[in-house]
């Protein structure tokens, strides 16, 4: 790849007091993402959540034959009465999966079930509710049109048609669709590998007693959870002390074993000078102060062939920056052709929210149905960037754009659902 011109895009100077807007950072990152190329053929069940490396073409017409859309009687449209009554003789029965192989002459019809192949010489199905049946004869009036209630071969899918394009992220409905074509093996892009570690002298791992001033390392668990939902291979490298030799060793090891390296902590002003030096030595990385809350500091770049995301240390900032930057980037790297950002929905805010214009805020919110059936939302709990409890209680982000100021109760705001984001 050509070396990215990180300097130009790094928002003037790395510590320029002018922050980098969220959208600009997102676009910048997008320009340097190189999706995985390697592919593998795997059995259909394993394809869920993976990205197709091939177009799925229909190997047949679906449905394969003209067939009946209803239970009734198959007949030739020429035998339909323009007015008055008509009477036809029933010469056999066609079931789904069991065709009627005989001939259907003028004045004759065939009892037919939904999905059964249309017998030769028939083109219309009159539904059973519209006929009187007596012995082997049916009588019916006008009203049915020639060709009615017949499904055509290839109506759903035509032979050779692209059913799902390469670059598509496979969902449960797609598994069924591919199975309906009789395809059992599919070529997908290989799984992305993500390595991550937490930085900080104050961090203790689960199982260790907490010394004075220590906190348990929670970021490795939220990151693990968020990466798991994306279906990538995960390499958890534990906690690394704020020690340049250990950090350098960990960064090199991570970049050699993964496509994406994630770290948390150590990128805020003060600490960053230190990581900055190291990352500049090992690769090309920009340090941004993003115009967002929570989640201000963010580093992005390359270490060797790996993409690097230096997330903030605060537990909620880690999650917000992951959802807003890392998730979309990972989807592109996984091979997805056009990942859509998580949709924004409108909801009536039932509490007031204090907000200063100038940066995008992602407030933790509780979305619910109001008495009149309209969606309402309220900011919940303590919105501090270290308070995971309110993150755990929330079911959405209230997204307040750069330009927006205080929100009064009753105003409409935009929310982003947490469920379904990853
Ligand atoms: P930093 O960005 O390294 O200055 O960290 C900011 C804040 O987040 C500090 O209060 C840290 O103690 C806290 N923090 C950093 N990393 C973690 C982690 N892995 N788990 C929990 N808290 C963390
Ligand atoms: Mg730290």
Overview in brief:
With 422 residues, this protein is α/β, with parallel strands linked by helices. It contains eight helices and 26 strands.
Can you describe what's shown?
It is elongated and about 95 Å long. Residues 7-16 have low confidence and may be disordered. It is of the alpha/beta class and 422 residues long. It has eight helices and 26 strands. Strand 20 (297-303) and strand 21 (306-311) form a beta hairpin. The strands form seven sheets. A six-stranded mixed beta sheet has the order 7-4-6-5-9-8, with no helix packed on it. The chain has a six-stranded mixed beta sheet with strand order 16-13-17-21-20-18, with helices on both faces. The chain has four domains: 17-38 and 190-333, MoaB/Mog-like domain (Molybdenum Cofactor Biosythetic Enzyme, Chain A, 3-Layer(aba) Sandwich); 41-60 and 160-189, Molybdopterin biosynthesis moea protein, domain 2; 67-151, Molybdopterin biosynthesis moea protein, domain 3 (Molybdopterin biosynthesis moeA protein, domain 3), CATH 2.170.190.11; 344-417, MoeA, C-terminal, domain IV (Beta-clip), CATH 2.40.340.10. Bound molecules: adenosine monophosphate and magnesium ion (MG). Residues 198, 200, 202-203, 215, 217-219, 264-266, 268, 271, 312-315, 386 line the site of adenosine monophosphate. Adenosine monophosphate (AMP) binds at residues 198, 200, 202-203, 215, 217-219, 264-266, 268, 271, 312-315, 386.
């Amino acid at each position: 790849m050509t070396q990215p011109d990180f300097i130009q895009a790094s928002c003037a100077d790395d510590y320029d007091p002018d922050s980098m807007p969220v959208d600009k950072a997102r676009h910048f990152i997008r320009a340097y993402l190189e999706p995985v190329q390697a592919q593998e053929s795997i059995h259909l069940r394993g394809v869920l959540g993976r990205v197709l490396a091939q177009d799925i073409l229909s190997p047949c017409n679906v449905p394969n034959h003209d067939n009946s859309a209803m239970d009734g009687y198959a007949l030739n449209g020429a035998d339909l009465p323009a007015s008055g009554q008509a009477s036809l003789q029933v010469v056999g029965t066609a079931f789904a999966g069991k065709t009627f192989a005989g001939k259907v002459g003028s004045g004759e019809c065939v009892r037919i079930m939904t999905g059964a192949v249309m017998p030769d010489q028939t083109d219309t199905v009159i539904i059973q509710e519209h006929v009187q049946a007596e012995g082997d004869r049916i009588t019916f009036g006008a009203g049915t049109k020639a060709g009615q209630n017949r499904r055509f071969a290839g109506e759903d899918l035509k032979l050779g048609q692209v059913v799902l394009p390469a670059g598509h992220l496979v969902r449960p409905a797609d598994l069924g669709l591919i199975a309906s074509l009789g395809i059992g093996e599919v070529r997908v892009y290989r799984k992305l590998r993500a390595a991550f570690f937490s930085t900080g002298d104050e961090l203790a791992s689960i199982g260790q007693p907490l010394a004075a001033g220590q906190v348990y390392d929670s970021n490795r668990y939220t990151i693990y959870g968020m990466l798991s939902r994306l279906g990538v291979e995960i390499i958890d490298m534990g906690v690394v002390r704020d020690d340049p030799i250990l950090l350098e060793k960990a960064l090199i090891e991570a970049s050699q074993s993964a496509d994406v390296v994630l770290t948390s902590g150590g990128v805020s002003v003060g600490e960053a000078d230190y990581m900055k030096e190291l990352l500049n030595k090992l690769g090309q990385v920009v340090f941004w102060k993003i115009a967002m809350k929570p989640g201000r500091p963010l580093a992005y770049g390359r270490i060797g062939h790996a993409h690097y995301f230096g997330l903030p240390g605060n537990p909620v900032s880690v999650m917000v920056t992951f959802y807003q930057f890392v998730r979309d980037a990972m989807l592109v790297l996984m091979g997805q052709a056009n990942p859509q950002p998580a949709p924004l929905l409108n909801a009536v805010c039932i509490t007031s929210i204090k907000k200063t214009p100038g940066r995008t805020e992602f407030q933790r919110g509780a979305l619910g149905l109001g008495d009149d059936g309209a969606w309402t939302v309220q900011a919940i709990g303590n919105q501090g960037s270290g308070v995971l409890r309110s993150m755990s209680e929330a079911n959405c982000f209230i997204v307040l754009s750069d330009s927006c100021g205080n929100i009064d109760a009753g105003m409409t705001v935009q929310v982003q659902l947490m469920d379904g984001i990853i």
